[in-house]
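WARN  no MSA supplied for this record, continuing single-sequence
INFO  ligand: FE2/S2 (inorganic) cluster
INFO  echoing inputs
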Amino acid sequence: MTTHKTPSSAHGSDRDAVGFHRSWFPVGLAQELEKGAVTGIDFLGTRAVLYRDPAGNPVVQSAWCPHLGADLSIGTLVDGQIRCAYHHWRFDSAGSCVHIPTGDKIPPGARIFTYPAAEAWGIVWAFNGEAPLFDLPAIPDAAEPDLIFEARLRGVRHVANWVALSNGVDFQHLRTLHNLPVAATPDTIDVRDDAIEYRVETPAFLQHGRISGTSTFGLHLRRAEEDSFMLFTGAPIDETRTRSFYVVGVRRSPQEVDPGAATVARLQALRDFVEKLMAEDEPVLNTMRFRKGTLVAADRHLARYFKYIDEFPRAPATLDGRP
Ligand code: FES
Ligand SMILES: [Fe+2]
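INFO  complex generated
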């Protein structure tokens, strides 16, 4: 779905926005978000609370109680509603205050900002905006039922996520940093409002990559007739730190419900490969002081990526109502 233009056209109100990009961001591992539990995360320079509604759907909301600003992530779920620990005001999964124990009339401003949220690829996602502008990130050429996959938390990186994400179109570093001589550079990349995609195919090799929003790089790689699928994603903790996650997947055979030993081994090998790539990237990413420096002709896809990032809509810094 392509629904937005550059900030200055379709999102005139974004012109003054200095907040984070209007993108889907990963906020947690789906399997760690247990029903009945409440967790808090530092997210987008502020704080969010995560839980599941009675139907099991993830809910991601501003963690700041509109009464006196207590952190709702130390609250409790009561009848599917989040209850502030301090004076027990309660909020529903749409963010409305639904109960004040003193019996006072509920003030109209007693609301918590509720991010659009969804679950996919073992990850809980939240969109930084009132409504999603595009579809959830996905892995190219694969649907969840086709793969045996696993999602993991990688940890905190000391770099803005959109800087780390430039890896997805930095074809030179595949040879220099990662020593992958087989890696090819596509002639062209397809840049849309909310995604960048490319495909390079040779008889020995396929590389189909897609950057989605400003959080996620999904890749379908085929080497030696073996398909592997991966997704690298991260959410801003603040302007300089990112909480990063990854997913690895291999195809399942049609009869394979629980993965067989061969599939487990393929998945393990892919995880080792991906973790090696990340271990090579991270010393660079965690210490670089990014600037758009002296670019050369070989950097043309990177240059296009930085333009895409510059034009990407941003939400107001105060989207969640904090001062
Ligand atoms: S601060 Fe949350 S109910 Fe008072
Ligand atoms: Fe890399």
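The two ends are 33 Å apart (CA to CA).
INFO  checksum written, moving to next record
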